[in-house]
């Protein structure tokens, strides 16, 4: 399955979770993650994803952008066509994130 990144945003007490393809992760998203956390292992769910996906995240974290070889494969990843944002879920304010814009990884299969 394709690696996904969940972006949790709290706007006026309304928490919103939006999923995007890993290949749609921009340098700005990575910069926001690095500002909120000191290392990629702090990302919620990081230890639950495949080792090769952990390595992909670590590399992008270190470089501040996705590697060129991943950018070239963008159209080849399963489900990479179409909108960058896949699905939104509304959550209750009681489950507010630890940081204003917490980033969450997800893989389609485990």
UniProtKB/TrEMBL annotation:
UniProt keyword annotations, A-Z: Metal-binding, Nucleus, Zinc, Zinc-finger
Chain intervals with Basic and acidic residues compositional bias: 93-110
A GO CC annotation given for this chain: nucleus
InterPro entries for this protein: Znf_PARP, Znf_PARP_sf
Region annotated Disordered, chain positions: 52-110
Biased composition (Acidic residues): 75-92
Broad class of where this protein is predominantly found: nucleus
Annotated localization: Nucleus
Every PARP-type domain range: 19-65
A Pfam family the protein falls into: zf-PARP
Keyword Heme: no
GO MF annotation list: DNA binding; zinc ion binding
Identification of the protein by name: PARP-type domain-containing protein
Provenance organism: Mucor lusitanicus CBS 277.49
């Amino acid at each position: 399955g394709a690696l996904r990144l969940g972006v949790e945003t709290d706007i006026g007490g309304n928490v919103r979770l939006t999923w995007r393809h890993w290949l749609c992760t921009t340098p700005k998203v990575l910069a926001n993650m690095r500002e909120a956390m000191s290392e990629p292992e702090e990302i919620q769910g990081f230890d639950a994803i495949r080792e090769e996906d952990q390595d992909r995240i670590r590399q992008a974290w270190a470089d501040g952008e996705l590697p060129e070889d991943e950018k070239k494969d963008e159209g080849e990843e399963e489900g990479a066509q179409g909108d960058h944002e896949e699905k939104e879920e509304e959550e209750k304010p009681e489950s507010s994130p630890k940081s204003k814009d917490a980033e969450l990884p997800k893989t389609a299969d485990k």
